[in-house]
């Protein structure tokens, strides 16, 4: 090796030439011709001499001492550069290599990715094994296809890869990525095919050790072909990942909805409580208002009649009385000189004062109610955010709410109480602390990092015997910065990502996590900050609660490590405390820093009788990963002044006078004051109430003779519900109908001179019918039942446009928040609304409000997006909201003058814009996701052109029916929560054939009959409605088709089901799985390895359509699937146009299928070749009887390479095919099928077959049996064989020992048995009867005698075709006297015994061949009867037969049993239940 210290440039160039076979002397000639240079492990200190190689394209330098890239400006053609395993600290000197395509800088000391902006052609970068902490500097590399940054210090991804859309391969292994949100950012790379986060050559990222890691990655990046070096290209893997995620989303969606439902129930209770509390004030207001109107009417009548001589107007007199009351408020009695008029006015003012008082009480109750609602919603929102965080982290961060029954809850409770010192809080009026809620945080990633660092510390340190490391673990409170109060978002960030996120923006002020073991140290800064803030803002001192009453705590597990005391002058930072893990500061040092504001507390401490301050301490931990948040505590302080809330007590609203805080409550003196006012003079005399209005009554009330004279009509305080012929009063200027029974005002029309109209205190529900009131100036509609904001405002705008004063208070408006601005914006002439004057600022704000509540071009541009793909994100929010928040694909505002941008819009989010109508969407023909939640919509309209709409959200409106969506045939998700729906129209849902998600919560729906035709429904949410009977649920039977739900989620045999039956979950000792007659459709036993000892599976009588998850069980030898619907070993995809709805639903589940389609002869074998990989290689015995199988090729049985026994009885098989791969098959049962012929290739490769069962088929010919060279048993009973010539073909099976042909037409010929005995010399049993030596001799003689000719004659003359040409002597028969029965019993053991009962073989043929009605039971058929008889009678057989049987049965003792025992012996589970025949 060259010594670096003595090396000069010339020597370096010489070494470079030598390493590459170049001559230094000829470098001028050879250099320009050189395109590749390499140098390995030679200590090359720097890059020099590149000017000699101007045409260099590849430079490789490995294992050198290069610290800086230089001299490459002479190589503009360089395409490949390797500077690996060197000492590079910075990427530089590549600016001129603009043609560079591949850059390898791995195993260096680079800390920053920089200076690559000019390398536009770069496609490959390897920067693995460096010191890089952040991915940056790649924004110009749009052609980048491969990036390797493994083995660095990266913990965050962010949006750094957004410009690199062509990236295909990315290796991030060996880094510190620990957040699923970071991985989700990689979904922006559409061409990414190879991703590594856990490469075997590197340590895994922490996130790879979490649950559901692979599922999360594959769901967000379905285009991946390889993940962590594994092949994930199979579609089934992606489908499984997506199905898993969709189930998770569905689960958390239901939980979120449950929380919302609980909130609605709590809010309803609050509302009921508010109504009860407001009843008394409302009754009082109504009483006083009614009396005021009575008095005003009497006063007017007195003045009109002249009994009161007063020329002053009521208004001016009222002002005088007000001044009098101001001068002397306690005056209850009028002087004797007071006139009757003054009495009227005094009582009127007293009544108005009481109304003001009770209105104030109503406002107080409403204020308290809103505060309680806010608390409930805030608490609810936090729970929802916890659930969403669980979903986003794929369950790796969970939140558990505790209860007193939990031990950890009580431990936390005691911990907080033990660290609360009442003396410390005495100055704030706090006497105690109450725990409202404790939430336990389960964060796997933070705990894993904490334990890893904790273990590293223990491994490095040598602890003495007296020092226990557990003493370094503490439970401490996190000290919040009062200037940066933790809101919900920051709190969730801390609980999910740890305290690093909380401390990052505080580093300029604090470089450690601040903690304390004292509630005083933790809470005191917050309390003082809020007190000062309240003081500065001059808030109302009568507020119900102190601003600091409610608080939150984070309790963290902390590893303090080496902790040192804080020094007064040194700031808390790692630099000032080297070698320390934490710094502590006792409470006594904190007291020295207190301000003058703390004097009161310090003086109180002098008289305290506790020693808490000696234990109180503050800690600063430098490493945030050693602080693990474990609990969140919500608490409140109890104070000296106990606040009695109206909504937290069941006591009476009326309280004692001694209560200090009585806001919202009613004092007994208030009721006494009411009585005093009501008893004031003058008293109102009761009048008879008018029920029906006619001409005479009108004239009487108005004190007029004709209608034209009536100017004022006061009908207050009657029982009127109609104003018949009121339009005839054309001169009417003032109309009062308060305190009547009106529900509508449709009689009030065409009163051209009406200026004053009082219709308060009625039951008016609509203003429809009012018209022609052009001069109306004053309108009072308070205390009615008006609800529909938009409709009523439209009526007023159209028919009372000149009204100046309007009162609409105390109506149950649907959208009260936006009511005032809506009214002011529409009624331009209005000067007073609800008794409050309208300011210019308010009028301007109302105009802007109205302008913003319409869908304009600007609105569409602002709230739309142009994304084409549905976002793959873990959220339960509508896609329109998600895309609007995360997508940057806005419509270009520069081209908004051109209408071509409308079709580009696919996403529209118009939530909370106070829209009263959907309009101007005609051109949005490609709109796919839209949301119009929290508006003022009353009907669905304006969407007729949006035919591509897939998702529509209309929550929080006033919609009463779903008319308007029936044309949206592509709609898949519809949400109309919190509206006013009362029914579901069937005709609407008939057209929504793709709708699978429907949410109709919090409406007024009474029936579900309209959903009968919503066949595609999968999710239906309909809580908080008015469905009252269970029968309504039956309308959903045809919808989500119960069938669909069953197909997608039901009929699964899972580990949980087995564990429930066994009582434990240890499946490793299971040897047999028996689960019959349970409607099982799929088998999902994962992980399959835990069932490794299961060798016998019986799933008879279920609904399986394929082997499903059984194919993954590693050691199954015997599988019984009789009486199912098996169509294939694995499910096959079928064309959609050939499937029924049920079959299409079956295809949604990987392991399903339905029935078996019989393809045409031309394509039967397509797709079922031998090239399919083998499965279930341990399987030896397979039962597929009675499955409706019609095509053997489609079963894909050739994949079961080691199968020895195959049972296919009771199916609909017509052709024997698809058995090419079963080259080890020994027994095949095809009884009771539809086989007509045996094709040429049926048994082409079954040269090991020993037994073939073809009884009860339609065979007429016995062709193509020659390949069965080892066949010993052949059962052909009950077929259609007619000719003896067909029996002669069996001579091609010379090894045949047992044959059955009973029930065939040929058996009626007496010569069939002698012929077979003669032709088959090895035959031992025929039709269940043993062929003896004597019978064989008789058969030969019988055949000769039948012809009556010598034995030497030609066989043709004998009349028996097929006999040998030369027949000169009897064939030799050798008989060995062997007890075959004893040998077989010994072979099969005690499980198989042959009875010693002799049955008559000549029994009635009909009874003999009779089938059992229950195939599952053991029955007696002809073949089994004759076999038993023969085995009992046999006295001799060849010794070779016994030996051969013994060898063949060595591995499977369950073989060679008769048909009646076939389903109860070793070839299937012994406890299989019986089942009736299927038609």
User: What spatial form do the alpha-carbon principal axes imply?
Assistant: extended
Extract low-pLDDT stretches.
1-7, 329-337, 505-509, 591-597, 603-607, 655-661, 1134-1170, 1349-1479
Task: Report the helical percentage.
Answer: 25-40%
Oligomer: single chain
Q: What is the terminal separation in angstroms?
A: 89 Å
Strand order of the largest sheet: 37-39-40-41-42-43-44-45-46-47-48
Number of helices: 34
Strand content: 5-15%
> Strand count, sense and closure of the main sheet?
11 strands, mixed
Mean pLDDT over the full residue set: 80
Number of strands: 48
Structural class: alpha/beta
Radius of gyration: 47 Å
Fold and architecture overview:
The protein is an alpha/beta fold and 1479 residues long. 27% of the residues lie in helices and 12% in strands. It has 34 helices and 48 strands. The strands form 7 sheets. An 11-stranded mixed beta sheet has the order 37-39-40-41-42-43-44-45-46-47-48, with helices on both faces. It has a 10-stranded mixed beta sheet with strand order 1-2-3-4-5-6-7-8-9-10, with no helix packed on it. It has a 9-stranded mixed beta sheet with strand order 11-12-19-15-13-14-18-17-16, with helices on both faces. Strand 33, helix 24 and strand 34 form a beta-alpha-beta unit. The longest helix is centred in the first third of the chain and has 71 residues, at 235-305. The protein is extended and about 150 Å long. The two termini are 89 Å apart. The model is unreliable at 1-7, 329-337, 505-509, 591-597, 603-607, 655-661, 1134-1170 and 1349-1479 (pLDDT under 50).
